[in-house]
Amino acid sequence: MKGQNKLFIAIIVALILGVGIGGVIHTQYPESAEPFSKNIKLLGTVFIRLVQMIIAPLVFTTLVVGIAKMSDIKMIGRVGTKAMLWFISASLVSLFIGLMLVNWLEPGHVTKLPIQDAAAAEDLLKSSKGFSLEDFVKHMIPKSLFEAFATNEVLQIVVFSIMFGVALANLGEEYSKPVVKLFDIIAHAILKMVGYIMWFAPFGVLGSIAAVVAMNGFKIFEVYAVYLRDFFFALAVLWLVLLLVGYLILGNRLFELLRRIKAPLLIAFSTTSSEAVFPKLVEELEKFGCNNRVVSFILPLGYSFNLDGSMMYMTFASIFIAQIYGIEMSLGQQITMLLVLMLTSKGIAGVPRASLVIIVATCSMFGIPPEGIALILPIDHFCDMGRSMTNVLGNALATSAVSKWEGQLENTPQEV
């Protein structure tokens, strides 16, 4: 937590420095704004490339391990099926709410940023008009795993990972255990790298913000206020939907559940990590009356497959970046993006800012400038607080609902 606070402070300091430097260039040396912007933006480019560097191995290892460990579904049967139905439904609803509200509220239309590279804009227009079902299939089915890794084709990596994970799960523990353990170690090492890379984020913020302010002046800050307002409104709508569904299933016991998980919710909000509250959440759900076997199966699975707050944020942020660069996306393209995010997000664990990795990959896939992610990075900490807390709520509701459906929810809470 101390590290996260230091990083947050470093990003805020970098933001202030970037604003100051960019403001001085914009007002005092306008003739130098363009070359200055081009050079200092390289800091942001380095950060983005560092993030892109780990996308393929991170998605591959985490997804293979998650799928391979799902062999437990055979033992639990109906519980696993109901859990997956909940996860898929909740993910689609979360993504759809983000998509619907970002199109309605249009936070990115407060101001437009020019796409610097004319050739890139031309390619973008071509790919936008030509994106079809055939292109989607080609993006989805890998011709070669190594080519998919080399070109960061995330969806192709997801397809291979799912097939490989299922094959491992059906090999039997004797053969699959050492492979799964190896990939689990690699996945944890890569997640460690994510932590290291995030320490370069302040430089990326400094370069990106200084470049934007130098070229566009202070009107860029209208974007931050509108973005936060609209995102938290969208989050409130998602909470309303989740709580309504929870009430339909649990009745008045929903309020008891909320009392039980208030501490995990607050911890997730302050640390921006839903994983930080995992042990406490297990304890409180068992005290609430959920069967410990159901909790021990659904909750870990939910931390990979049921991140409602992160799911909603991914559609919201991706379309916002497109809006701020003045890129119009058709309804078909947006629905395709929703389905792509539905698949790609399943390979990401509930660690702080992990959803940014998927947003960068998705933006690249749909021709949206991935450097746009640096524009929202300074306020991402505040967004992360809200989405981490929402992830905890979603997983608590999923576990309680499946326990109730299975007749495994005790009416008298346990005090163990």
List keywords for this structure.
single chain, 416 residues, mainly alpha, 19 helices, 79% helix, globular
Could you describe the 3D structure shown?
The protein is an all-alpha fold and 416 residues long. 79% of the residues lie in helices and 0% in strands. The protein has 19 helices and no strands. Helix 1 packs parallel to helix 10 and helix 15 packs antiparallel against helix 19. The longest helix is centred in the first third of the chain and has 36 residues. The two termini are 28 Å apart. About 4% of the residues have low confidence. This is Cation:dicarboxylase symporter family transporter. It is a multi-pass membrane protein. InterPro entries: Na-dicarboxylate_symporter (IPR001991), Na:dicarbo_symporter_sf (IPR036458).
Give the radius of gyration. 22 Å
Oligomer: single chain
Structural class: mainly alpha
The overall average pLDDT, rounded, is: 78
How far is the N terminus from the C terminus?
A: 28 Å
Number of helices: 19
Question: Biggest β-sheet: count, sense, barrel?
Answer: none
Total strands: 0
Residues in β-strands, percent = under 5%
What is the N-to-C succession of helices and strands?
Answer: HHHHHHHHHHHHHHHHHHH
Shape: globular
Helix content: over 70%
Low-confidence stretches: 115-132
